[in-house]
Design brief:
The chain contains 11 helices and 17 strands. By secondary structure, the protein is an alpha/beta fold.
Length: about 375
Amino acid sequence: MTESPAPTPAIERLTCVIPAGGVGSRLWPLSRANAPKFLLDLTGSGDSLLRATWDRLAPIAPAERTMVVTGISHRDSVAEQLPELLPANLVTESEPKDSSAAIGLAAAILELRDPDAILGSFAADHVIRGEVLFQRAVMTAVQAADQGYIATIGIHPSHPATGFGYISCGDARRDLAPFDVYDVTEFVEKPDAAQAEGYLKNGGYLWNAGMFIARASVLLEQMALHQPSLVASLREIAAAWDTERGAEVRERLWPTLPKIAIDYTVAEPAAAAGKMVCVAAHFDWDDVGDFASVANLLTRGRGSDLAVLGDGAQVLSDASSGIVVSESNRLVALVGVEDVVVVDTADVLLVTSKSRAQDVKNLVNRMKVTGGGHLL
């Protein structure tokens, strides 16, 4: 009697999906619609955040199992930065519809290609240091996903950050891994300073890094419990994706999809239903959400230093700290200013402080309604 072939190991069924969307409005005027933050080098490494993400995932999944979901206007830039990316794995959105649609479409395509596929979603614009620890965390999450759970990866907080969401962890799941895997009891929105201090002091809370690992079919089934029409449309788009009807179906259905984050369609409901687990990871992580984050990354947290970013940036400083980002050939001179943010581009000069860096988004929102859209 012929023996059945051995099942494919879970890690070999993993496809890494890189959602590459969003402008990063808190990083304006450096990050703009035609040059979003994931296409920029914000670490001074010489590589964009997208390129660094691809390289980080390469030891986990080969090119044939790595997919990028991006806006159609960024298709060429993504392809240029990632020449290894297979055309069949470059998925474009005609208009942004948030993470449920982006990740859900990738899941629907993968489900058709392989009913046992495991999807891992990793943002294109985050910075991670400690790549061996990252790889171990992903492999642990894949094993949990293979058991039918939706897994996420949480980061041990190094300080009481108010710019990140948090994950509340429950019981240890030693049936899934010897250590570092916990039930997720709740996802918590960005806290105020007092709450963040409490989370750090009391323990049991991790930063939410927005990484999700699950069987593609399980993720879609969970999403369908709360957004059945969304999932039905995504599966219809996926069914036609590689056919000559693909463009027609996509253009007909994509504009009708709701804009909703995957946190609300998958993560929070799955946690409430006891279907979500978290791998507590030990690598350094930052979502590079504003210029204060960029400054901290470049100075390795030394707040008394002045960070400088930009090829050929000319900066003269005396007793100053913060960050200068320069895309011009002008000399930027600072005297006696602490925690300053200066961003000098060809058409915009931004000056603020690290403590108010998050508020740059407010300026962007005002410009959208006051006729400054051409600068965005």
